[in-house]
Specification:
Strand content: 25-35%
Number of strands: 17
CATH superfamily of the largest domain: FAD/NAD(P)-binding domain
Pfam family, one: Pyr_redox_2
Order of helices and strands: EHEHEEEEEEHEHEHEEEEEEEH
Subunit structure: Homodimer.
Catalytic activity: [thioredoxin]-dithiol + NADP(+) = [thioredoxin]-disulfide + NADPH + H(+)
Keywords: Disulfide bond, FAD, Flavoprotein, NADP, Oxidoreductase, Redox-active center
CATH architecture of the largest domain: 3-Layer(bba) Sandwich
Protein name: Thioredoxin reductase
Oligomer: single chain
CATH topology of the largest domain: FAD/NAD(P)-binding domain
Radius of gyration: 21 Å
Amino acid sequence: MAHIYDTIIIGGGPGGLAAGLYAARSKMDTLLIERGKFGGQTATTDELENYPGSIEDCTGPSLIERMRKQAEEFGTAFVKDEITEVDFSGKIKKVVGKKETYEAKTIIIATGAYPRLAGFKNELELRGKGVSYCATCDADFFTELDVAVVGGGDSALTESLYLTKFAENVTVIHRRDQFRGAKSIQDKVLSNPKIKVIYDSVVDEAKGDEILEGLVLRNVKTGEASDLKVDGCFVFVGYLPITELFTGKINLDETGYIITDEDMRTNIPGVFAAGDVRRKSLRQVITASADGAIAATTAEHYIENEFNEA
């Protein structure tokens, strides 16, 4: 007879690890399944200054390792496996991995999301060394420096305005001849004296060895190349939620994010979601962690009060 856990958490980022901590601390039989490296995007963050209490050389990897050890000490079991199929149709939920099949009374999905790459040369090589995908995380590092923003949607324009609080100059690079963002945000961007806009252009290359030194731009209409000296490049061309596995299994929004209520419930009883994978306004370590705590607490209440009626 298969072992039936109280909860299975899919994903080992901050949301999943916080869920593991809260679930195990509540004496739930908890399994966390991660297919790769614990931490998700946080594991690639060298400095983590905006997580409360992280004031002494706190890095993404060090925070994630502390979170993992804490969850483990309270009893969370960890498995490395890649989930290939899920079945949420029954009272007992099934999760099929490449190694084996797992069963639980509840599921917490914390698979996260990842930023869409712009696709220019050296983008990945200089990620975290001047190339960033999060203004809230990294803007402070570029105080009184020159930065570029790649993108033309609401996120790119909103983050450009945010960056003006820190950077000396902000150059927005957009591949079209007009922005796609809301008119009200466009007006604010275009009237801000610290923001310069370069239309009809894309980034072909990030220049620099150990740190970003500048960008090579290309006009998409003329093909003309030009150099732009900047200290930072913020890419905002969208995020991709890791939800392919759940298509048709639970409700997703038009962009693929999981729809939940404020208690992290999906439309399927016993299935919850936490962190960047769910539809929300702010994707940060602190909000993912809060989601995980709420999801685990709600899952516990579900088992105590609703499971036998499901």
